[in-house]
Amino acid sequence: MEDRSYIRVKAMAYLPNAAGTHHAVLRGEDPSDGRTFHRLIGGSVELGERALDAVVREVAEELGATLVDPRLLGVLESIFSFDGEPGHEVVFVYAGRLAEGDVVPPGGAWYDDVGTPMWVEWRPVGWGSISGVLPLYPDGAEALLQVR
Protein backbone atom coordinates (compact mmCIF):
# COMPACT_ATOMS: atom_id res chain seq x y z
CA MET A 1 0.00 0.00 0.00
CA GLU A 2 1.19 3.52 -0.85
CA ASP A 3 2.25 5.70 2.09
CA ARG A 4 -0.34 8.49 2.30
CA SER A 5 0.92 10.06 5.53
CA TYR A 6 2.11 13.17 3.66
CA ILE A 7 0.91 15.43 0.83
CA ARG A 8 1.95 14.07 -2.57
CA VAL A 9 2.82 16.20 -5.60
CA LYS A 10 1.54 14.76 -8.88
CA ALA A 11 1.63 15.69 -12.56
CA MET A 12 -1.16 14.50 -14.84
CA ALA A 13 -2.19 15.03 -18.44
CA TYR A 14 -5.35 15.74 -20.38
CA LEU A 15 -4.75 13.78 -23.60
CA PRO A 16 -7.50 14.29 -26.20
CA ASN A 17 -7.84 12.05 -29.23
CA ALA A 18 -7.18 13.48 -32.70
CA ALA A 19 -10.87 14.33 -33.14
CA GLY A 20 -11.02 16.12 -29.77
CA THR A 21 -14.11 14.14 -28.74
CA HIS A 22 -12.53 11.89 -26.08
CA HIS A 23 -9.52 11.89 -23.76
CA ALA A 24 -7.41 9.04 -22.41
CA VAL A 25 -7.97 8.05 -18.77
CA LEU A 26 -7.02 5.26 -16.42
CA ARG A 27 -10.03 3.24 -15.22
CA GLY A 28 -9.53 2.21 -11.60
CA GLU A 29 -11.39 0.67 -8.70
CA ASP A 30 -11.16 1.44 -5.00
CA PRO A 31 -10.41 -1.94 -3.34
CA SER A 32 -12.17 -0.97 -0.12
CA ASP A 33 -15.62 -0.44 -1.61
CA GLY A 34 -15.45 -1.40 -5.31
CA ARG A 35 -16.17 2.13 -6.58
CA THR A 36 -15.03 2.52 -10.19
CA PHE A 37 -13.53 5.81 -11.34
CA HIS A 38 -11.51 7.52 -14.07
CA ARG A 39 -8.21 9.27 -13.41
CA LEU A 40 -6.06 11.41 -15.67
CA ILE A 41 -2.85 9.80 -16.93
CA GLY A 42 0.17 10.65 -14.77
CA GLY A 43 1.70 10.18 -11.36
CA SER A 44 4.13 11.39 -8.73
CA VAL A 45 6.72 14.10 -9.17
CA GLU A 46 10.05 12.74 -7.97
CA LEU A 47 12.41 14.65 -5.67
CA GLY A 48 14.36 17.18 -7.75
CA GLU A 49 12.11 16.74 -10.78
CA ARG A 50 9.99 19.54 -12.22
CA ALA A 51 6.27 18.84 -12.71
CA LEU A 52 6.62 19.38 -16.47
CA ASP A 53 9.38 16.76 -16.69
CA ALA A 54 7.34 14.41 -14.50
CA VAL A 55 4.25 14.51 -16.72
CA VAL A 56 6.38 13.78 -19.81
CA ARG A 57 8.06 10.86 -17.98
CA GLU A 58 4.77 9.51 -16.61
CA VAL A 59 3.08 9.49 -20.03
CA ALA A 60 6.10 7.65 -21.45
CA GLU A 61 6.04 5.11 -18.60
CA GLU A 62 2.29 4.54 -18.65
CA LEU A 63 1.50 4.66 -22.38
CA GLY A 64 4.90 4.17 -24.01
CA ALA A 65 4.22 7.42 -25.87
CA THR A 66 5.80 10.85 -26.21
CA LEU A 67 3.95 13.86 -24.80
CA VAL A 68 4.42 16.92 -27.00
CA ASP A 69 3.34 20.53 -26.61
CA PRO A 70 2.46 20.21 -22.90
CA ARG A 71 0.92 23.32 -21.37
CA LEU A 72 -0.15 23.85 -17.80
CA LEU A 73 -3.94 24.06 -17.40
CA GLY A 74 -3.88 24.58 -13.65
CA VAL A 75 -3.07 23.15 -10.24
CA LEU A 76 -5.63 21.20 -8.21
CA GLU A 77 -5.66 20.17 -4.57
CA SER A 78 -7.33 16.83 -3.96
CA ILE A 79 -8.24 15.46 -0.51
CA PHE A 80 -9.69 11.97 -0.80
CA SER A 81 -10.00 8.46 0.59
CA PHE A 82 -8.65 5.39 -1.24
CA ASP A 83 -8.51 1.83 0.04
CA GLY A 84 -9.87 3.09 3.36
CA GLU A 85 -6.97 5.51 3.87
CA PRO A 86 -6.98 9.32 3.63
CA GLY A 87 -4.97 10.95 0.85
CA HIS A 88 -3.94 14.48 -0.05
CA GLU A 89 -2.41 15.52 -3.37
CA VAL A 90 -1.42 18.70 -5.17
CA VAL A 91 -1.76 17.97 -8.89
CA PHE A 92 -0.27 19.92 -11.80
CA VAL A 93 -2.62 19.29 -14.75
CA TYR A 94 -1.22 19.66 -18.26
CA ALA A 95 -2.81 19.42 -21.68
CA GLY A 96 -0.86 17.96 -24.55
CA ARG A 97 -0.92 15.58 -27.44
CA LEU A 98 0.85 12.34 -28.18
CA ALA A 99 3.49 12.34 -30.92
CA GLU A 100 2.36 8.85 -31.89
CA GLY A 101 -1.32 9.84 -32.26
CA ASP A 102 -4.19 7.86 -30.75
CA VAL A 103 -2.13 5.08 -29.14
CA VAL A 104 -5.08 3.83 -27.08
CA PRO A 105 -7.36 1.52 -29.13
CA PRO A 106 -11.03 2.62 -29.44
CA GLY A 107 -12.15 -0.02 -26.91
CA GLY A 108 -9.30 0.64 -24.46
CA ALA A 109 -6.33 -1.56 -23.57
CA TRP A 110 -4.09 -2.82 -20.77
CA TYR A 111 -0.81 -0.96 -20.27
CA ASP A 112 2.15 -1.72 -18.06
CA ASP A 113 3.01 1.10 -15.65
CA VAL A 114 6.50 0.01 -14.54
CA GLY A 115 5.28 -3.47 -13.59
CA THR A 116 1.72 -2.53 -12.59
CA PRO A 117 -1.07 -3.32 -15.07
CA MET A 118 -3.49 -0.48 -15.75
CA TRP A 119 -6.56 -0.24 -17.97
CA VAL A 120 -6.69 2.88 -20.16
CA GLU A 121 -9.77 3.89 -22.11
CA TRP A 122 -11.34 6.89 -23.82
CA ARG A 123 -13.67 9.15 -21.83
CA PRO A 124 -15.99 11.47 -23.78
CA VAL A 125 -15.03 15.12 -23.36
CA GLY A 126 -17.51 16.84 -21.03
CA TRP A 127 -18.86 13.53 -19.76
CA GLY A 128 -18.88 14.82 -16.18
CA SER A 129 -21.91 16.96 -16.92
CA ILE A 130 -24.00 13.79 -17.32
CA SER A 131 -25.35 12.35 -14.07
CA GLY A 132 -24.48 8.79 -13.09
CA VAL A 133 -21.15 8.63 -14.95
CA LEU A 134 -17.82 7.60 -13.49
CA PRO A 135 -16.17 10.37 -11.48
CA LEU A 136 -12.97 11.86 -12.89
CA TYR A 137 -10.03 12.34 -10.55
CA PRO A 138 -8.26 14.34 -9.34
CA ASP A 139 -11.13 16.30 -7.85
CA GLY A 140 -11.80 19.42 -9.89
CA ALA A 141 -10.35 18.00 -13.12
CA GLU A 142 -13.67 18.00 -15.00
CA ALA A 143 -14.25 21.70 -14.26
CA LEU A 144 -10.63 22.55 -15.14
CA LEU A 145 -10.96 20.78 -18.48
CA GLN A 146 -14.10 22.78 -19.33
CA VAL A 147 -12.06 26.00 -19.37
CA ARG A 148 -9.09 24.59 -21.30
Low-confidence stretches: none
Q: So how many helices?
A: 2
Tally of strands: 8
Percent of sequence in beta strands? over 45%
SSE class: mainly beta
The rounded distance between the terminal residues' Cα atoms is 34 Å
In N-to-C order, the SSE pattern is EEEHEEEEEH
The biggest sheet, with number of strands, parallel, antiparallel or mixed sense and barrel status, is: 8 strands, mixed
Shape: globular
The Rg value, from CA coordinates, equals: 14 Å
- Percent of residues in helices comes to 10-25%
- Report mean pLDDT, rounded to a whole number: 91
Structure description:
By secondary structure, this protein is mostly beta strands. It is built from 2 helices and 8 strands. Strands 1, 2, 3, 4, 5, 6, 7 and 8 form an 8-stranded mixed β-sheet that branches. Strand 6 and strand 7 (about 115-125) form a beta hairpin. It starts with 7 loop residues before the first strand and ends with a helix.
